[in-house]
Amino acid sequence: EVQLLESGGGLVQPGGSLRLSCAASGFTFSSYALSWVRQAPGKGLEWVSSIAGRGSSTYYADSVKGRLTISRDNSKNTLYLQMNSLRPDDTAVYYCARGGLLTAWFYWGPGTLVTVSS
Amino acid sequence: EIVLTQSPGTLSLSPGERATLSCRASQTVISSYLAWYQQRPGQAPRLLIYTASGRATGIPDRFSGSGSGTDFTLTISRLEPEDFAVYYCQQYGSSPNTFGQGTRLEIK
Known about the structure:
The complex is a heterodimer.
Chain A: E1 3-7, E2 10-12, E3 18-25, E4 34-39, E5 45-51, E6 58-60, E7 68-73, E8 78-83, E9 92-98, E10 107-108, E11 112-116
Parallel strand pairs in A: 2-11
Antiparallel strand pairs in A: 1-3, 3-8, 4-5, 4-9, 5-6, 7-8, 9-10, 9-11
Chain B: E1 4-7, E2 10-13, E3 19-25, E4 34-39, E5 46-50, E6 54-55, E7 63-68, E8 71-76, E9 86-91, E10 98-99, E11 103-107
Parallel strand pairs in B: 2-11
Antiparallel strand pairs in B: 1-3, 3-8, 4-5, 4-9, 5-6, 7-8, 9-10, 9-11
């Protein structure tokens, strides 16, 4: 059974940093691109970033470019999102999903909440 | 980037009725790479339909998708109580992937 489980969310001050993790199981991790998607409270879904299976290619939404960094450790079956220079409008539930830019996303984690506030 | 506009914003129907949700794209969606997701309160999105009309594994056959080019439709033939949720369309044929703003399906 495919499972994705995010962790690392919490409360952080504006300008602060946070690292999210997404632990995966039930599939050959390195064979799949992965993505982060976020949802601000009461709002819709927004694609944030994607990474290829071997990690050689990464992609970012303009709203996060230069501040958020996606990476993966295929030996640990784990996806990461390093979040720097956080702003209040980064407040959202962050989901990891299996799939990249040109695929539908069949599997999603339950999400982790990031709150940026002083 | 491709902008997806969903209509209506809110749809009020009763169990057993038929629901028709629309998603219109600002440009042609390449290869009909259009997906529909259902999101219940407090849950992650769940994929229902991919490539405009393909039903994901485990999705009941009362859910169907259609369309091509710039106009797409999700139809729920007979609403069950668990179908009342928010529905999003997503295009993944052009970078960046983009989502519609959602249609809220509520019990009348």
